[in-house]
Amino acid sequence: MKSAKPVAMQLYSLRNEMEKDFYGTLEQVAQMGYDGVEFCGFYDQPAEKIKDALDRLGLQAVSSHQGINTWINEFDFWADMFQGIGCRYSVIPYEPEEYAPNGEHYEERLEQYRETGLKLKEELGIQLFYHNHDGEFQNYKGRYGLDYMFEKIPELNPELDVCWIKVSGEDPVEYIRKYKGRAKLIHLKDYAILPDADPEKVYYMRDGKQRTKAYTEGFEFRPVGQGCQDMPGILRAAEECQVEWLIVEQDVSPDSTPLQDAQKGIDFMRQATQTALA
Q1: How much is the pTM?
Q2: What are the Cα distances from residue 182, in Å, to 92, 113, 117?
Q3: Based on the structure, what is the number of domains in the chain?
């Protein structure tokens, strides 16, 4: 049984499994009940073979995490890959410090987003997205760097990661509403702050503070629905704000295998989506 809104699996969560058995892992994701996948690397597999597998398994290639330099340096290659697998959304997953808010090349990078976003849309019909972490919640010119980015570059769309929004001290529900109609992709990611952690130190990126040992020792990823997130509220906001895809991601699985946690995620979504929208 599928959930009420389409749910995809971010395959970074299953990166080791994908490397070992690309097509077998896709098959397991489909058997769990996911509607689509968000790629994070293609492991040298050809587009035609990937598309055949997706069609056979009933999975949609929702999006793929692609560094902006891949488009700048190898546009034709990636154009063939995206068109070959039927993928319409390309997501910038992460940027190093020099391209982050207050970094030396931040403004220059934003212009590359603008140029690449326009080219993708005009030539391929592909939309460009940016996936946030907590580093974008630094103050930049009187507002968060994340908000500055989306204000300045209308060609760039948000892929809102609810984990890092909450870690930054903001409300994921309000951010989904803030970008209503523009945030078509949402990363559903849950976590817990462990009892011995100093909560103030976990929010290390607020006001530009540095990462601390307490962050790694006091923070733990959890399967969707088993952490501190208000998942029912997030799901209601996603429905209200025309989110197209809910994408389950869990960077690390501390107590189970990644495949087991992927199953827990879709099991939660089957139940919670129906309950939240009832």
Answers
A1: 0.93
A2: 16, 16, 14
A3: 1
